[in-house]
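Example record used in the benchmark description.
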Amino acid sequence: AQRSLFSIVRRSGKLLINLDYLFVNNGVRQAVSKTLAEGKYSTYDVIKKGFIAQGIVVLVIFFSNFSGAGIICHFLNDNSLVEYIKFAAFIIPFTGTYFLIMGILNGSKNIIPEAIIVCVYPILKLSVIPFTLFLFSNPINGVIMGYLFAGFIICIFSVIQEKYPSFH
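Model output (C-alpha cells):
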C-alpha cells in the first residue's frame, strides 16, 4: 500500500512540476518573447496581456498550493508540512514574474539586462539563505525567504532598468 501511495505522490509531483514548467516558466515567457521580437503588435499591449495571462496562471497555482496545503499533506501523511507548503506558495508569484520579465527582455532584445538577471538571480537565491537563517530559526523558512528575496530584488532591478534604460 505504501509503495502505491509513493508512486501516486511521485507521479502527481511530476505532473505538477510539468504543469508549472509549461505554464509559469515557459508558456507566457515564450509567447511574449516571440510576439515582441516579431514586432507586429504594440509592445505595451503585448506586455500588458502577458502580465494578465501570467497573473491568472500564477494566481490559480498559488491559491491551489496555498488552499490545498492540507490536502497535499494528507496525501503525504505529514500534517506538519502545511505551514511550509503555504509559505512556499508565495514563491510562485515571484517566479512567474521573473520568467515573464525574461520573456520581455528577450523579445525586446535587451540582452545585457537579461544576461545580468539570468546570472544574478540564482546567486541571489543561494547567497541570501545564510542571512535569512539569522532571522528564522527554521532552515526551511530561510530557504523559502531566499527565493522570495531574490525574486523581489530581480523585480525591482527590472523596473529600474526599464524605467532608466541607461542603467544597464
